[in-house]
Amino acid sequence: xxxxxxxxxxxxxxxxxxxxxxxxxxxxxxxxxGPNGAGKSTTMRIIAGYLPPTSGLVKVAGYDVVKQPVxxxxxxxYLPENPPLYKDxxxxxxxxxxxxxxxxxxxxxxxxxxxxxxxxxxxxxxxRLIGHISRGFRQRVGLAQALVGDPQVLILDEPTVxxxxxxxxxxxxxxxxxAGKRTVxxxxxxxxxxxxxxxxxAIINKGNLIxxxxxxxxxxxxxxxxxxxxxxxxxxxxVYSVIEGLSGIKNITVNGILEEDLCEYTVQSExxxxxxxxxxxxxxxxxxxxxxMKSSFMSLEDIFLELVTEEPAIASQKGEKQL
Length: 323
Hints:
Blueprint: E1 2-11, E2 14-24, E3 29-33, H1 40-48, E4 55-60, E5 63-64, H2 69-73, E6 76-79, H3 91-101, H4 106-120, H5 135-147, E7 153-157, H6 165-178, E8 183-187, H7 191-197, E9 200-205, E10 208-213, H8 215-223, E11 226-233, H9 236-244, E12 249-259, E13 262-269, H10 276-285, E14 290-297, H11 300-309, E15 319-322
Parallel strand pairs: 3-8, 3-9, 6-7, 7-8
Antiparallel strand pairs: 1-2, 1-4, 4-5, 9-10, 11-13, 11-14, 12-13, 14-15
Helix pairs in contact: 3-4, 3-5, 4-5
């Protein structure tokens, strides 16, 4: 649905985006991450057709955004970090105006405007001037104008900035509901938000695409192994011996004795080897109950810091996911 091939953007002698190649599949939510000034917003503006690339190819739904801009933009809804709102217009008038720019007319326009206002939760303020509503509601109005054309591609630059916690939850749920229906590129400084919403992440630093994959695969690549933490009831030496005999095991650490015959172990295995079933059946066969099993992995914050700062993530900061 979205294709960037060898894209470069220069401002004078400064390279803001450096030979980025990236593909986003239909119905996928991609998180675009990077420190301030890394080139995220520039990349999103290029995809939206707001900025032309200096060189390279950018396609949306198969259409070149430079050579076929009008057709390509019919497929795009764009929410910039600072939404371009007319503060002297009412919410309803502004979203209606945005719908007209998208070519909607008559009953279709009215129905679509009402539907999108309901989706983003601004129906009850539709007759108020945009200049008289809160920052959070303005952000919702900006999201409404991005959605009103019913685009197949949605580009969201910091969509939850300025929202209160309840509004953030509601907008996140709205974005989740878009998965499969629309292709979404999402930029956010709230990394747990990206983890919960996005199928894949792409990390940009100093204009370069330095990593692109699922958070889980990126964590495995940086760690160099899979890691399972489990609590097993049984004689420590015998449990250790059973685990050691399994295929693909790289390292076993006894974290501590929790109570009599109950110990916690950290088991590292080869990246391509999922040992959870093997562990389960081996413990069951020997009569050693597994009381808890969880996967230990690097959080997206750890991945981001290690890739951007090139400093190893602190082991104690790893997140744990209950299985």
